[in-house]
Task: structure prediction
Amino acid sequence: MGSDVEITTPKATKQKSGFVTTLTRVLKYSGVRLLSLFITVVIGVYLTIMIANMGGYVDQMMKSEIQERITMQIQANPAFRTMDPATRSQLTQEKIQSEIDRLGLERPLVIRSMGFLKNALTLNLGRAQLMSSDSGSRNVKAIILERIPYTLLLMGTANLILFFSTLFLALALSRKYGSFWDKFVITLSPTSSVPPWFYGIFLILIFAAVLKILPFGGVIDAPVPKDFLGRALSVGRHLILPASSLILSSFFLSIFNWRTFFLIYSSEDYVETAKAKGLPSRDIERRYILRPTLPTIITAFALLLIGLWAGAIITETVFQWPGLGRVTFRAINLYDTPVIVGTTIIYAYLLAITVFLLDFVYALVDPRVKIGSGGGPQ
Amino acid sequence: MKDNNTLLHVENLKLYFKASKGIVQAVDGVDFDLPNNKAVVIIGESGCGKTSMAKALLRLLPKNVAEYSGKILLNGVDTMLMSDEKYRTDVRWVRMSMVPQAAMNSLNPVLKVGDQVAEPIIVHHSVPKEQALDQAKTMFQRVGVPVDFLHRYAFELSGGMRQRVAIAMSLVAVPDLVVLDEPTSALDVLTQANIMNLLKRIKKEIATSFILITHDISTSSELADNVVVMYAGQIVEVSDNRRFFTAPLHPYSAKLMASVPRLRGKEQPDFITGQPPSLINPPTGCRFEERCHKRFSKCSEEPPTVNVDGILVKCWLYT
Result:
């Protein structure tokens, strides 16, 4: 199959000049594509900044919060009790003003948002307003980096198992259309309307509360095991229930989706010809069903990889799993704009890079796709 | 029962499908013989079960099959008794190959056409890839496809070229029988003529039998040794080239022939009124009765197949 992987130029005789034109075409295409993706990211992040600030309403909230806090401070401070009310009120106003100046709330949001945007795009994520990482840092980067390993561990394990098991089960099922197992999966596919945390609660009930063989939640046993193996085993044990609930909740629907997808592609004429040619079933599945559908499968897989980044908010909460989903959720509740923008910008960059790379991957796996040649397949 | 020269003997072949409204009797008890190195043309209107018969012969069954029975003797061996795996290794492509109806879509879009043509011999004859590609190259030359097309993809080829590739693919494992299911229906008239000429040449050069399924009577007349006329899932006439194209016996065949425009002569093309009957509940008696200009009282009963000087015709007129 390795020989299939090349961007073909129509005329073999003009190979040299063909290579140069291909190169310029690809470079030009890449430039235009990167620029347009960058503009998309800028727009997306700017919208996030405006929404996270609620179009400036968060400024109002912060101003009144400052006003209230400082008034209370001064009233509660015995040192200012003896002051006459006019001076005290003036002092209060001054203090409020200096706090507002310090936070830069005086300038309109539209102007400040440009600074936010620049910081976000350069990955200068800044400091959180209210939240802090478990180690006490206010750095948004620290808050996010602290949670990433846990989120990737949980989401990665669950989604990778889910993706590959459902893909190959679906391929097998699509070849046995109408069989018992096919009908079984179709019947069970509505089980995916139940969210993963619901399965989580049941799994906790069964395996933690009743059977007492797996922990209720968290990532590791309370006295942390000293050796690496012990720690890995402990984390593994804690991983089983949340990962299973994530897998369970999408398992049958995912098989159903892929099976339908493969069914459509197995009714192509070339699959029937392959059958008439007497190719073994495995060859038909590999070369005539999987291979032509590879672009779609790769897209789904790439999107899954970025999806890992988002975390699973409620499932993480149910299992007390210290992942990114919970951080995002808390940040939204607290209007902690830098944290919201920080998670969004990383997500946006990952998505843009993936979309950009996918175009090249398509050209590698599908000879009908040519980078930057404008028209699609005939 | 049959002489040694019979390649294919089909007896009471049935292929029924389940549909939402009932059972579709697409192929309903078909008998015919095909001698070695002959071409038989199967003609009839759309929806007469021609393609279904090709599928039944090649065991390419859709998922909603209700009944699949009868005898298909290939060189005296009943293939209907074989298991799927034995059928795959012993019959598919090595004995019986096909050129599909839409050859445009019958090539895998992401594999090079040369690899696809070479594939059957790699699988069936365990030939190394190099040698298989050499043979594919020979086949390409034979059907008039430039050899460097071996390394192209199907979407880079024109319709006519794809059709030639499909024909090369069907011949590569030297089968005893090639089933061509309307091989020219998706092509323009000039390309059709080219492909028909190619088939005529190949028929002369190679000792292989052909079953050509078509509704294009005029082009098939040049290729056919024998003619089989199908109507509503049944065979109504089995004749030979010489006699069929001058004087068909069955009223349906006569009407079909009359519908073909003539190059010389003053007759205007005629047409057949009405539609073929639904195959879900086909009428009892002669299935053509409703549209027949020669019907009489007996036609409401199932007609027998009569042998008129070697021509088999399923009609009461000849009893």
